[in-house]
Amino acid sequence: MSEITQEQLAAFKKDVDEKPEAAILRGAVTTNGILKAARDNQRAGELTPVFSVDLESSPVANQLQSGRCWMFAALNTMRHDMKAMYGLPGDFELSQSYTFFWDKFEKANYFYNNIVATADKATTDREVSFLLATPQQDGGQWDMIVAIIEKYGVVPQSAFPESQASSHSAEFNRLFNGKLRKDAIALRNLVNDGASQADIDAKIEALNKENYYMLSLTFGEPPLSFDFSFRDKDGEFHREQSMTPQNFFKKYIGWDLSEYISIINAPTEDKPYNQTYGVKMLGSVVGGRDVKHLNLDLDTFKDLAIKQLSAGENVWFGVDMGPKLDRVAGLMDTELYDEDSLFDIDFSLTKAERLDYGDSLMTHAMVLTGVDLVDGQPTKWKVENSWGDKNGHKGYFTMSDEWFDQFTYQVVIKKEYLPEELRDIFESATPKELAPWDPMGALA
């Protein structure tokens, strides 16, 4: 092993002292921080929120202190259709707390099933350690929200409003994950003591009963039916009585969710393009829709998003929301901060290198609602976020095309926009199973 010597330290210090710009840069960084010192204000000014393809905007939602971005993004794509069809008021939202309740409930049961399946392995086994590290969390993926909606439907926010825990989930998650870990002990002991499958199933049912009670007290009791009233775009009043969540989805949204599929761009050697991938132990609803990705090259990936936007349909998409971001201004751009020049260090990595070496993965989901095309090529994208209207342009962000290339990993595309050969691959190919910790299994 190589030790750092006093001689090396003296040489490092001498090198800094001999750089005439070091004192000025040190003052700028220590006073303002790295990002403000490295910010290119001229570049920021070029990212104006004007787009050649610009779908009608709704007031943005706010996930507050919760990790429900993937859920907000999915429900926002649906509410756009509802508002356009029925002329609902600008502040209309579908209940993110309702789907959150059922996601928590189903994730716990999914965890129990994985614990039983791995009960013969030591707790130090990597898969078991992975399960126990975070038994459940707020995040998810497109296929997971589809599984929830297909089983439980959706409701307007008026039928199941926000609770303290749905908007500020850390306290609940700490307590709930502690319970699930304790439940894992009981389930592993049952399996390893030779209990029958009937006894194991009975124990899981008892634990799920406890979970339902805990969720009901924390988030509220989800409605079996509700009344829904509104005035349409022509001013006519409508009232629906005793609507079930499933019937509400069918009547007022009506999407065939099987037509919307996950497309990824993961340019790593272990994931050849034009193949499908699943992720081991990733899901929420046992017996529901599995997570399934079709990996495509960047040009095709991007072209599909443009086709769907140009047809007037929003696009759910997943990104790494950390790098090169000005949250307050609502700007996402690879040239926004020049840390390389500031520190005289080349920090660049390829997209594949970031994925392979743990520098990047999907952390956030939003909605594409516009794109600016110049000579048919995208230059910037309009993004509906779920962080409230105080950031960006009333909550909408501007993303440069270069940022899209580097940090966008997933888009949800309607099958009709795919070439026939890609639809056939998605439908017929057996997905390759990725490890639970693969970056394409990250939860937004």
TrEMBL record:
Matches recorded under Gene3D superfamilies: Cysteine proteinases (3.90.70.10)
- Which InterPro entries does the record cross-reference, listed alphabetically? Papain-like_cys_pep_sf (IPR038765), Pept_cys_AS (IPR000169), Pept_his_AS (IPR025660), Peptidase_C1B (IPR004134)
Q: Which domain of life is it from?
A: Bacteria
Q: Which residues form the active site?
A: C69, H364, N385
Q: What Gene Ontology cellular-component terms does the record carry? A: cytoplasm
One example GO MF annotation: cysteine-type aminopeptidase activity
Q: Which GO terms describe its biological process?
A: homocysteine catabolic process; proteolysis; response to toxic substance
Q: Does the keyword Chloroplast apply?
A: no
Q: What is its main location?
A: cytoplasm
Keywords of the record, alphabetical order, are:
Aminopeptidase, Hydrolase, Protease, Thiol protease
Keyword Cell membrane set for record:
no
Its localization reads: Cytoplasm
Q: Which family does it belong to?
A: Belongs to the peptidase C1 family.
UniProt-recorded name of the protein: Aminopeptidase
Upper classification of the source organism reads: Bacteria, Bacillati, Bacillota, Bacilli, Lactobacillales
